[in-house]
Amino acid sequence: MTTVPTLNNSVPLSRDAGVIGLVGLAHMVSHFSQLLLPSLFPWLKDEFSVNYAQLGFLMTIFFVVSCAVQTVSGFVVDRFGPRPILFAGLGLVGCATLGYAISTSYWMLAGFSVLAGIGNGVFHPVDYTLLNRKVSASRLGHAYSVHGITGSLGWALSPALVVSLTLAYSWRVALMAAALVAFAVLVGFHAPVP
């Protein structure tokens, strides 16, 4: 007869839940930022007199930069720790989103897509480092599940927010509100991460 070993978990649930919640919130912002521009393509197409291929290229810029930065940021996180890199990522995403809101040309959108890609590229190395270092081994499965769910929630919330605000006000107002989401999470992270 074999026995299954039990894990002695002396870390309080509240501590693990706090870390999991904060990391999940950051991951939500990452995915939230990925669908800001695509949700607004019909309005941006008319505003900047561009076609959908040109708008799609903005997303290519965003994801190519994000992919390159993600590789490098893993080493940066190991060197400087996850917290300052997370702050930088949230700040860059917020600034890029404000930049989108004030853009007066397609090339400004492209430049802010680079900035947004840099900010977005730090989240996975930061998230996994925080989860692996701070969450009890017995709760890591739950932590990864919450991480995945919050990313999907970010994808769902982004179009819901920006399209609604665009219809009610304008795409610029919608992007300013989206920037506030990133900055609000950044302020929330200034509470001590357990």
Structure described in brief:
The protein is mainly α and 194 residues long.
CATH superfamily: MFS general substrate transporter like domains
Strand content: under 5%
Rounded to the nearest angstrom, the distance between the terminal CA atoms is: 40 Å
Find the CATH topology.
Growth Hormone, Chain: A
**Residues in helices, as a percent range:** over 70%
Count of alpha/pi helices: 9
Q: Mean pLDDT, nearest integer?
A: 92
The total beta strand count reads 0
- Shape by Cα distribution: elongated
Element order: H for helix, E for strand: HHHHHHHHH
CATH class: Mainly Alpha
**pLDDT < 50 stretches:** 2-8
How many domains comprise the coordinates? 1
Structural class, by secondary structure, is: mainly alpha
CATH architecture assignment: Up-down Bundle
Rg, rounded, reads: 18 Å
Query: Sheet with the most strands?
Result: none
Describe the secondary-structure layout.
Layout: H1 13-34, H2 36-39, H3 41-48, H4 52-80, H5 82-102, H6 106-120, H7 123-134, H8 140-168, H9 171-189
Helix pairs in contact: 1-5, 1-7, 1-8, 1-9, 4-5, 4-6, 4-7, 5-6, 5-7, 5-9, 8-9
What would you say this structure looks like, in words?
- The termini are far apart.
- The chain has helices spanning 13-34, 36-39, 41-48, 52-80, 82-102, 106-120, 123-134, 140-168, 171-189.
- The protein has 9 helices and no strands.
- With 194 residues, it is mainly alpha-helical.
- The relative contact order is 0.21.
